[in-house]
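Hi support team,

I've been running sequence recovery on a batch of backbones for a student project. Most finish fine, but this one hangs at about 90% for roughly twenty minutes before it completes. I'm not sure whether the input is malformed or the queue is just slow. I've pasted the structure tokens below so you can try to reproduce it. Let me know if you need the job ID as well.

Thanks,
M.K.
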């Protein structure tokens, strides 16, 4: 056992916060089926509608009834792309525009539509991870059915300009979707201000339970169920209500909204501290992601000459939990598609670590990581055949952006 234990993988998932846990324990016995008309059903229904209002408030949605509960971010994203398949297969307007840095559940949904014969574009991003707006404008036309761009990236934390992206899409009559799974609870999110038609959320990234999420759908935007059955959720998502998950989600959303400013201040101060200490103590590193338009909790760093997986395991032995790229991509030996898309070569991409901080991160945690990390990097670099200076040089060579998802 380690003396210390430091969790810095909040973008993969978050612990259940005690307030949410307490509420869930209290509501474990709210077993009524919210579709039943009797008293027990009505009690469950009232609690579910309260939770829906909290989730709607977190994303600035004026009409809570446009928020549909799903099993999570992956299901919400799949629901949108499945809807595009059903309406696009019989019409000329069927082009899909997304980016090369989306979460795998969007990338693979888009790739599936491409395999089904839809024109699909995976937009390149710049070196900071922002959508290449020239490439975007060049792809816009009256044939575009959907533009899907994530609000903030899970690996490097870069925040996209969804408002401008949506405005340009609307001029062509296209629908707009954003995966706000990483943005919600970290930065202000507003479906009204951004002008999107669909927005995806997941509860386990905001200190709530796993297996619950939501999809916002604007009035009159088309939507087809992925799961057919009873007429729960206006027929958009069948299946008996997940009372416990929904109520936990409502409480997590309520607290996230109430604490947004405080969270942002605390976590960005800690991120700046970690960033400063790493730059001071480890030579030849590269900070990935946009310098200012970045999530306050996410710090992605390349340590050329040290292998990401080895860094991760060495940190794990010290009780420090971080990630290389994304949790969803680990287990695969390919370098992160996001790091490749921002122009890192495979050597640099393979030597990258994502530190994602959160609500329970402390200054002591940051100091502990900043103490343990430098000797680990130095040891791994001594074993490396290519000097760090040589690898970091590769980032300065301009190259074409890698194409697409796969
Ligand atoms: C975690 C995550 C998802 C998937 O959400 P689940 O609820 O785990 O299915 C989707 N998109 C992004 C950006 C994520 O970070």
């Amino acid at each position: 056992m380690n003396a210390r234990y430091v969790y810095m993988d909040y973008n993969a998932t978050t612990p259940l916060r005690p307030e949410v846990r307490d509420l869930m324990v209290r509501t474990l016995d709210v077993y009524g089926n919210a579709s039943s008309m009797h008293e027990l059903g009505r009690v469950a229904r009232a609690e579910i509608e309260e939770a829906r209002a909290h989730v709607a408030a977190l994303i600035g949605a004026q009409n809570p009834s446009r928020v549909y509960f799903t099993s999570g971010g992956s299901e919400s994203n799949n629901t949108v792309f499945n809807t595009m398949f059903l309406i696009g297969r019989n019409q000329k307007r069927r082009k899909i525009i997304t980016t090369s840095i989306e979460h795998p559940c969007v990338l693979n949904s888009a790739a599936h539509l491409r395999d089904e014969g839809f024109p699909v574009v995976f937009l390149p991003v710049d070196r900071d991870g922002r959508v290449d707006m020239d490439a975007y404008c060049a792809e816009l036309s009256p044939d575009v059915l959907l533009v899907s761009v994530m609000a903030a990236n899970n690996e490097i934390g870069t925040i996209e300009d969804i408002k401008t992206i949506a405005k340009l899409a609307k001029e062509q009559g296209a629908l707009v979707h954003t995966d706000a799974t990483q943005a919600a609870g970290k930065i202000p999110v507003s479906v009204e201000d951004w002008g999107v038609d669909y927005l995806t959320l997941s509860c386990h990234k905001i200190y709530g339970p796993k297996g619950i999420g939501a999809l916002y759908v604007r009035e009159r935007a088309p939507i087809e169920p992925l799961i057919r059955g009873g007429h729960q959720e206006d027929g958009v998502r069948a299946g008996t209500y997940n009372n416990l998950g929904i109520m936990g989600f409502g409480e997590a959303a309520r607290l996230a909204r109430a604490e947004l400013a405080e969270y942002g201040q605390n976590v960005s101060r800690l991120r700046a501290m970690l960033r400063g200490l790493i730059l001071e103590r480890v030579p030849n590193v590269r900070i990935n992601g946009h310098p200012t338009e970045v999530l306050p909790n996410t710090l992605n760093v390349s340590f050329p000459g040290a292998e990401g997986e080895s860094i991760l395991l060495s940190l794990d032995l010290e009780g420090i939990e971080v990630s290389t790229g994304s949790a969803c991509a680990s287990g695969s030996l390919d370098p992160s598609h996001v790091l490749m898309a921002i122009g890192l070569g495979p050597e640099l991409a393979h030597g990258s670590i994502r530190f994602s901080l959160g609500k329970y991160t402390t200054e002591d945690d940051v100091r502990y990581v900043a103490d343990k990390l430098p000797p680990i990097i130095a040891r791994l670099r001594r074993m490396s055949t290519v000097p760090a200076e040589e690898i970091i040089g590769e980032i300065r060579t301009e190259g074409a952006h890698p194409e697409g998802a796969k």
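--
Follow-up from support: It reproduced on our side and the slowdown came from queue contention, not your input. The first strand starts at residue 6 and ends at 7. No action needed from you.
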